[in-house]
Amino acid sequence: MSRRTSLLAIGAALLCAALAGYYLFVAPTAGPTTSLFEFSDPPLSAPQQAGSAVSASRVVPPTLAAVASGETPPPPPSTAELQAAHMELRATLVNIICTAPPGSGVHSISASGSIVTGTGYVITNAHVAQYFLLPRKGVSCKLRTGNPAQVAYEAQVAYLPARWVGDNMGVLVDPAPHGTGERDFAILAITGSATKTPLPPQFPYISLASLPPVAKTWVVIGTYGAEMLSLTQIVSALSPTIAVSAVKSLFTFGTSTVDVLTFGGSVAAQEGSSGGSVLGLGGTLLGVVTTSGAIGTSADRSLSALSAPYIRREYQAQTGESLDMLLSRAPTEALASFAPQARALEALILTTLPPAH
C-alpha cells in the first residue's frame, strides 16, 4: 500500500470515528492538575488527592504528595541549548496513530511517543499502547514521524504493566475515566518499515534519565498536539508542538521519591500530547507526558509527566529486572518474551469491550 493510500485509509477511519461521537473526558478538580480531554488521545485523569470522587467501581487513588526540592534551580537556558534540544526532539519524537473500524467499540486515537534506543524502542503511555493489543477488533496502529507527520514504522508492545491494565479495566469504554496516571507507561518496539523505505541501521534516540530534575528545572516538551486541527489536518498536516517550560512542582506516589513532574500553562497541554517527551537540556528524557488540564487558554492549562526514575523503579518492581536490561535486548527477543503476557492482556481488555456490530 502506498503512503498516500495509507493516509487516505487513516483519514477515512478517523472520519468514521468522528461520526460515532466526539469525546471530552473531565476529571475531578482535586489534585495538582485539572481536567483531561481527548478525542484524539483519551488518557486517564490527572493525579488526585486521596478522597477525591472516583467511579464506584474504582479504588480510591493514593495520595499524591508534594516533594520538596531543596536544590538551587538551574539558570535559564541559552539559545544554543534550546536549539540543540529542539533538534533532538524533532529527530526522536513519534506520532502514534491507531485507527478502529466503526462498530468496533473502540475509538481511533492520535498520541505521542519518544524513541529511547538506537534499536528502536519507543516509550509512551499504557493507555496508548493498549491499542496495539487489539488487532482482533480491527485496530491498526502505525508510528508516524516528521513535519508534517507521515506514516513510517510498524511497532508492537514490548512491555505494558499488567497492574495498569488490572487497575484500569474498562477505561476504553468509560465515558469519564478516573485514575492517577500511576504505572501509565509502556514500551513499544519498532518491528519494520510501514513504507518502501528500509529501517535505518540505527535510530536517533533520547536516553531515559536516571536522576530526577529539581523544581524550576528548564525543559523542552515535545508532542504531536492535535487539538487545534481538523481530522483532515491530523491526517495530512500534523506537526510537532515544541514548548519551553520549567518544572513547576514535584509529586510522589509514595513518600519522598520524585514520581510526577508538573508544568504550568503550555501549548503542549492539548489533545495528542499523551506520551510526549520532557527533555532535559542535558539531553536526557526526564519524563513522559501523561495528563494535561485542557480548560481555558494555554496560560491557564497544566501538564503532568511521569518522571524517568519513577518509570525505571516501577518497571523493576513489576518485573524484577532493570529497564536497561529490557532496552539492551534485541527487540525481537523482547517481543517474543512478552508475547504470552500480551495475549493475556489482550484477552483481558477484550472482555471489557462490547461485541462488534
In short:
With 357 residues, the protein is an alpha+beta fold.
Can you offer a commentary on this structure?
The protein has 357 residues and is α+β, with helices and mostly antiparallel strands. It has a single domain (3-350), classed as Thrombin, subunit H, CATH 2.40.10. It has 8 helices and 14 strands. The chain has helices spanning 3-20, 79-92, 126-129, 162-167, 231-236, 308-319, 323-328, 331-350; strands spanning 65-66, 93-99, 109-115, 121-124, 140-145, 150-159, 186-193, 207-208, 218-223, 241-252, 260-263, 277-280, 284-293, 302-307. The strands form 2 sheets. Strands 9-10-11-14-13-12 form a 6-stranded antiparallel barrel. Strands 2-3-4-7-6-5 form a 6-stranded antiparallel β-barrel. The chain is globular and about 55 Å long.
